[in-house]
Amino acid sequence: MKIVLQRVREARVEVEGRTAGRIGRGLCLLVGIEKGDGEADAEYLARKCVELRVFPDAAGKMNLSLADSGGEVLAVSQFTLAASVRKGRRPSFDGAEEPARAAELFDHFVGALQALGVTVETGVFQALMEVHIVNDGPVTFILESRPGGRPEGERGPG
Asked: Which of 33, 54, 64, 141 has the CB geometry, 3.0–4.6 Å to 102, for a possible disulfide?
């Protein structure tokens, strides 16, 4: 599972001209689900997103987590994060999870965030979406649940 995490002042997602989800200060999470991902991956990354200290404290240092800051989350499923662009000029989506299973895992991820006390808005799974983001900083991180995406010694699923 891969996530592009962006600290935002505000974010919203529109589908067919209507707002599907909107947040103020918080995190916009673009979520890619890969074959082999499971509930443990979703729970690991939900915890990581909520606990990662990316919000400024009174001194302006990134010292506060989403939980500390009381921010919200806009979670948007984005299967293109599971693409490989290693060969040729056309992305390969062979690594992306099948839609039905990906929807289940995305919902599990959202539920895990909510269980951690976070207010979560979402896009619409498999819809053509317009995501409007006012990135704060800019602050952007890429998180992965697989061993290749974790620093040495950091534990998680996989």
From this structure: 33
Q: Which residues 6+ apart lie within 8 Å of 113 measured at CB?
A: 46, 49, 50, 73, 75, 120
| Catalytic positions | 78-80
On whether the CB atoms of residues 32 and 96 are closer than 8 A, the answer is: yes
The pLDDT of residue 147: 66
CATH number for the domain running over 2-148: 3.50.80.10
Count of residues in the chain: 158
- The model's pLDDT over 119-148, given as tens digits with 9 standing for 90+, comes to 999 999 999 999 999 999 999 999 999 865
Look up residue 97 and give its DSSP letter. Answer: P
The β-bridge partners of 59 are: none
Distance CA 62, CA 37 (A): 30
- Supply φ then ψ for residue 150, to 5 degrees: -120, 140
Instruction: Give the residues across from 92 on adjacent strands.
Output: 84
